[in-house]
Every structure is written in C-alpha cells, then in structure tokens.
C-alpha cells in the first residue's frame, strides 16, 4: 500500500500526520507500507523535469513505476486555500494508466475544514483516472492543535479507530481489485 505525501512545503505539517499514519499501518499484519514523498529529491526532480518536458536523469524508480507496482493508496494532503497542493496535482496527472482500478483513501488536515475541501476535489480527479475513492477518511481539523509534542494525536483512540476503518476498506478494495485485474485486465 502506498502512502502518497502531497505537500512539499518547507516546515510542512505533513511529516507529523504521515508519520502517525505510517505507525497505524504498522500495527497491521496485512499491509506493507511504501511511502511516496513528493518532497523526495529524486521525485521532485522528476516532476520538475516533467514540467520542462525532459526525461528523468537517474535510475531511481519513476513515479509511474512506484504507482504501478502498488495495489492501493492513501493520499496524505493538506488543504491550501480551499484546495489541494499543486505538486500533488502534478504528480497525479503525471501518471495515468497506473491509477486505473485501484483504491485511493485520504488522510487530510488543515484548518476548520480539516482538509475535506481538498479531498472532495481529489475525488473528482481520481474518478477521471478510473480509481476508486473510499468513502471514509481520516481528517484533522485545526491539525496543529490535534497532536502532542511527540507527534501523537490527542485523541489516540478516535483517530486509531478512524484509521482502522479506512485501512480495512483499503485492504478489501485493494485485494478485490487486484484479483479482478488479474482475471480480467481493466479497460477504459
């Protein structure tokens, strides 16, 4: 399962949210976690080169290869100005075929809306890519007030339950769609 971290801002809050979520996935025995951090230098360079219409210069796995090799995703996204980050949009659009018939869940954070406006916009984008978005999300309203100094949510029980629901759905959809793609390749 891939965890796509959508913020590339210096000093981003995404590190705290994504580290917590990775630890929640680690409690399970049915999933391996593969973090795709858009601020990773190789990915940032690849996306920059995409804007310049050039090929990636190194031999690191491309974003398309990373996405293509996974059965499901959770996008960790902030809400910036009632939307999601531009780097996340670029990364999603950079890959096409690899998103098809795969589940996508969301962990969002932000101010009063907790990133939910960004999630609603992302649902439309992923629908166009033939991905299946999950109904249940994990959302942190006024996120900077929701975590302690150790990076743990103040409401550990509530957030753990929300994460478990999301991950249970992701596991079901990931397995079901993987088996479906194996029997009958997805065509759009």
Automatic annotation (TrEMBL):
Q: Transmembrane residues, as ranges?
A: none
Cellular component GO terms, alphabetically?
cytosol
InterPro entries, per this entry? Flavoprotein-like_sf (IPR029039), FMN_Rdtase-like_dom (IPR005025), NAD(P)H-dep_reductase (IPR050712)
The NADPH-dependent FMN reductase-like domain covers: 3-144
Name the domain of life this protein comes from.
Bacteria
Annotated Gene Ontology MF terms?
FMN binding; oxidoreductase activity
Q: Which PANTHER family match?
A: CHROMATE REDUCTASE (PTHR30543), NAD(P)H-DEPENDENT FMN REDUCTASE LOT6 (PTHR30543:SF21)
Q: What is this protein called?
A: NADPH-dependent FMN reductase
């Amino acid at each position: 399962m891939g965890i796509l971290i959508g913020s590339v801002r210096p000093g981003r809050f995404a590190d705290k949210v994504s580290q917590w979520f990775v630890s929640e996935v680690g409690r399970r025995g049915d999933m391996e976690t593969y973090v795709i951090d858009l601020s990773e230098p190789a990915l940032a360079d690849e996306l920059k080169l995409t804007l310049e219409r050039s090929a990636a210069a190194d031999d690191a796995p491309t974003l398309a290869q990373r996405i293509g090799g996974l059965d499901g995703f959770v996008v960790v996204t902030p809400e910036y100005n009632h939307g999601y980050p531009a780097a996340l949009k670029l990364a999603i659009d950079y890959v096409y075929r690899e998103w098809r018939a795969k589940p996508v869940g969301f962990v969002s954070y932000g101010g009063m809306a907790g990133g939910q406006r960004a999630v609603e916009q992302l649902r439309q984008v992923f629908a166009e890519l033939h991905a299946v978005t999950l109904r249940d999300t994990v959302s942190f309203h006024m996120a900077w007030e929701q975590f302690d100094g150790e990076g743990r949510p103040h409401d550990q029980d509530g957030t753990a339950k929300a994460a478990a629901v999301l991950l249970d759905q992701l596991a079901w959809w990931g397995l079901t769609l993987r088996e479906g793609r194996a029997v009958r390749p997805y065509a759009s």
